[in-house]
Amino acid sequence: MFAGCTVALVTPFRNGEVDYPLLQESVDWHIAQGVPVLSPVGTTGECPTLTHDEHERVIATVVERAAGRAKVLPGTGSNSTAEAVRLTRFAAKAGADGALLVAPYYNRPMQEGLYAHFAQIAESVDLPLVLYNVPGRTGRNVEPETIERLAKLGPIVAVKEASGSLDQVSELLCRTDLTILSGDDSLTLPMLALGAEGVISVVANLVPRDMLALIAAFEQGNRDEARRLHLKLFPLCRDLLAIAANPIPVKMALAMLGRGNGEFRLPLCPPVESAQLAIRTSLTRYGLLTGVA
Questions:
Q1: Which residues participate directly in catalysis (predicted)?
Q2: Sequential DSSP letters for 249-292
C-alpha cells in the first residue's frame, strides 16, 4: 500500500516554532504534484528535536490537511519501545494510514532486542507498519533474518531499506514478501531492478514529478527513460546527502527556491558559505535555479 514515491517531508520552522501554515502549504503542493504518500516527522522532518506535543501536532496537521487526498505515513519510532508504542497509537488515532518505525538508535540492541521492540509495537496497534533500517544513523543493522521473523507479524507490511547494500535488498526479497522501499534516492532505480517497489524520498521535496516519472517509466518497462531520469537525478540526490547531514541541504535548497526560510533547530544549523554555494550550484545544474550567486 506504500509502493511508489513517498516524500519524506521537511518540518518548517519560524522563530523557533513549527510553522504549521507553511507545513499545510507543503502538503497541498505535494498533492498537487501527484505525490501519493507523505511521510512527516522522520529524519528529514527533524523529529529528534521536536517535542512530544510538536511531534503529535505535526502528524495531526498533515493527516487533517491531506484529508484522504494522499496517504500519510508518519515516523513514530524511538529508541524507547514504550515511546514508540505511544507515538504509533497516536498516529492511528489521528487517522494516519500507517507508521514508519526506525530501528532503535544509540542503545544499539541485539537482534533479539530489535525483534522484541518491533514485535511489541506490532502487537500494540492496529495499523500497517513500515520498518526503517538505517544503520548509518542507528548504529545497528536490522539483519535480514530478523526482518524475516518480523514479516510473519501481520501489521508489518514493508521495509524502508537504507543500509546501502544491494545484497541485503536481495536477501530481503528472497526471505520475505514485504514491500521493499528504497531509503536512498540514488539507489531507487537499482533497487527497483531487484524487485523493490518504491522510495521514501528526500529529493522529492524538490522535484517530486521527476521521481514519480522515474518509477512510472520503470513500471511501464521503459528502461531507457528510467535510466535517463536516474542519471539526471543522481547528482542532486548525491549532493543532498553529501554536502551536509540530511536535512540541512534539502532545507537550504527549499529556501533558495522560495519555499521556506532555511531555519533549523539546534544542533542542526545552516551550512557554511562554501556548502551553501555547493547547494546553489547543484540546483543550478539541475535547472532549478538560473544562476549561481
A1: 132 (proton donor/acceptor), 160 (schiff-base intermediate with substrate)
A2: HHHHHHHHTTS------TT--PPPHHHHHHHHHHHHHHTSSS--
